[in-house]
Write a structure and sequence with these properties.
The chain is α+β, with helices and mostly antiparallel strands. It has seven helices and 20 strands.
Length: 347
């Protein structure tokens, strides 16, 4: 095992898919859990970075960035119905999905082509087209900075909710995710209830899609909705769909009956942030090189030379317009790193 090398004054722009200019005082690439015990101690603030698809640097990072590149995949057969898949946090999420499909392990098909690393999945409780990670997560193995030891957390311990978890909120700086375990089925039971997915399957005449056909359909939809970060810098869907109490949602839907919405298991209602933004005419809108994607109003993009100030102005302008029109507060989905975020920052 090689000792983790430290790069000083490291450029971070290529490590975030939004590609704003930023640097870190120290950058360390982690390739083995044992390297954690050998890291030189200091009082610098620490930030863990995976694929960079959910982190936007609004300023230089004054401390240490730990680049999680822990790899590995093992399959443990539980019984005739299920297997546990143990996978390193630094693995590509999309490659994991496709690998599991090839192995006949099911439950991830709707989550194909989500950018980023495996370690980010439980932080965000990633989800798409009617499926969330919470439906298949068995446990998370993590380094506990508070107690300086490796711990295993059950899915319940992770406190997953809509695009949130204890790793993102209550214990944001406590854990470094090393690996996750997923309980996947040997029997394919396609989840095709999400409206746009169902419509695309119907259009393609796939009444009973195979696992590969379902994943391919999801990827087709994502390519249509989301720009390739390698060609147009972005961080995917930028704002969370707001979730309101049933009474508040009912009142809003009486005023805007065409607004797409979904009932949540806890009785609350999730509303379509993209619909709100598009209805206000923001699609294609720009402040400098920070803009709203012309094909999907929920996606913010960097047209090449965007600055942090331009992005923050754009975020706050959209939040203000949506708040004025609908009385709803939009919360960014990516983590915004830097002191200039102000009201645009995640709570």
């Amino acid at each position: 095992m090689a000792t983790a090398a430290i790069i000083h004054d490291a450029d971070l722009s290529a490590l975030s898919t939004f590609r704003l200019p930023a640097s870190a005082r120290e950058l360390i690439t982690l390739t083995a859990p044992e390297q954690l015990a050998e890291l030189p101690a200091n009082d610098l603030p620490l930030l863990v970075l995976g694929g960079g698809s959910n982190t936007i640097f609004l300023d230089d990072w004054p401390g240490r960035v730990l680049l999680n590149r822990l790899t590995g995949l093992q399959v443990q057969r539980l019984d005739e119905d299920y297997s546990l898949v143990h996978v390193g946090a630094g693995e590509s999420w999309h490659r994991l999905v496709m690998d599991c499909i090839a192995r006949g392990l099911h439950g991830l098909e709707n989550l194909a082509m989500i950018p980023g690393s495996v370690g980010a999945a439980p932080i965000q409780n990633i989800g798409a087209y009617g499926v969330e990670l919470s439906s298949v997560l068995a446990s998370v193995t993590a380094w506990d900075w508070q107690h300086h030891q490796i711990v295993e957390l059950s899915a319940a311990d992770c406190r997953l909710s809509y695009r949130d978890s204890r790793f993102k909120s209550a214990d944001r700086d406590r854990f470094l995710i090393l690996s996750i375990s997923l309980k996947l089925s040997h029997r394919f039971a396609p989840n095709t209830g999400y409206d746009s997915l169902a419509a695309e399957l119907t259009r393609r005449q796939l009444a009973t899609p195979s696992p590969r056909q379902l994943a391919a359909t999801v990827m087709r939809l994502r390519r249509h909705r989301l720009p390739d970060p390698a060609r147009l810098a972005n961080a995917g869907s930028f704002f969370k769909n707001p979730v309101l109490a049933a009474a508040a949602a009912e009142a809003l839907l009486m005023e805007f009956p065409r607004m797409p919405h979904w009932q949540m298991p806890d009785g609350r209602t999730k509303l379509a942030a993209g619909w709100m933004i598009e209805r206000l005419g923001f699609r294609g809108y720009r402040i400098g090189d920070a803009g709203v994607y012309q094909h999907h109003a929920l996606v913010l993009v960097n047209h090449g030379q965007a600055t942090a100030g331009q992005l923050v102005d754009l975020i706050e302008h959209i939040q203000g317009a949506v708040g004025d029109e609908y009385g709803v507060e939009l919360e960014p989905e990516p983590m915004l790193i830097g002191p200039i975020a102000r009201s645009a920052r995640n709570p």
